[in-house]
């Protein structure tokens, strides 16, 4: 009796399993049809009637949905699955791509900000920030061209804007300076190369250019190149290292000491009576007294003293043979005092 009961249970389970496997497709289609009917009824269909009969829309809808899902459900399922898969894949790919791009950009910026200095043959070369006056002056390009300055070069966008403003100015001299500055900047970039030339946008107003340059150099430990006297002093006070081309020019001028003999051509009169002025090849002014007759002539002179000023170096000299003439004159006065007086 117990054995027959167990066999009946097993047989019932097998029949139920067979029934479910045979009609599972039907039940799944019916389930999804009812779900769709429920959603559409609460969102749309409950507001409308078909031919004045309530729930007729729902009956028509469930029949249509059931037929479509029953005969074409697998195709619809595959289509929807691929469509969803594609959307999800594209969305996640875009999110990941943007995320990693943002992280990479942040990392690169952090590295540049942390270490603007570039390792060069074991030495750390600080970047050099150029101001407007140094670019217009043009000599900084000559220094770079000769290889004495091989540091990375940084130019801020407000400096470029200032050069552009000068280049578009209605005044001839300002326009000439602006264009010369832009030409000089283009040559500097070409000589240095894109790898060691960088443009930084500080986003400051034109009247705050100098202040923004000093602040940027202080924060990022850069040098600043300028020939602007006031900017030079401001940078010194702020503790920023300054590369002044005027100072460099003075330092590399020919060393002249008192007692040295130099040959010079006098080209103009001085401020004092009988005073003439000439210039060395490096632009150093040489002043000689009592030599008006030598104007526009070359003459050997002896350096008397050298003065160093903020504007540059000035040499005072005298005619080479004037000392001997003075000595002879003094002797003549000693032996022939009466005659000399006459």
Q: What topology does this entry show?
A:
Blueprint: H1 2-43, H2 56-114, E1 118-120, E2 123-125, E3 128-130, H3 132-137, H4 139-145, E4 153-156, H5 157-167, H6 172-192, E5 197-200, H7 209-220, E6 223-226, H8 229-238, E7 242-244, H9 245-251, E8 261-269, E9 276-279, E10 285-288, E11 298-309, E12 312-319, H10 322-335, H11 337-341
Parallel strand pairs: 3-4, 3-6, 4-5, 6-7, 10-12
Antiparallel strand pairs: 1-2, 8-9, 8-11, 9-10, 11-12
Helix pairs in contact: 1-2, 5-6, 7-8
Structure description:
There is one protein chain. This protein is an alpha/beta fold and 342 residues long. The protein has three domains: 2-90, no CATH class; 118-251, 5'-nuclease (Rossmann fold, 3-Layer(aba) Sandwich), CATH 3.40.50; 261-327, OB fold (Dihydrolipoamide Acetyltransferase, E2P) (Beta Barrel). The chain has eleven helices and twelve strands. It has helices at residues 2-43, 56-114, 132-137, 139-145, 157-167, 172-192, 209-220, 229-238, 245-251, 322-335, 337-341; strands at residues 118-120, 123-125, 128-130, 153-156, 197-200, 223-226, 242-244, 261-269, 276-279, 285-288, 298-309, 312-319. The strands form three sheets. Strands 5-4-3-6-7 form a five-stranded parallel sheet. Strands 8-9-10-12-11 form a five-stranded mixed barrel. A hairpin with a 2-residue loop joins β1 (118-120) and β2 (123-125). α5 crosses α6. The termini are far apart. Mean pLDDT is 77; it is low at 117-123 and 323-342.
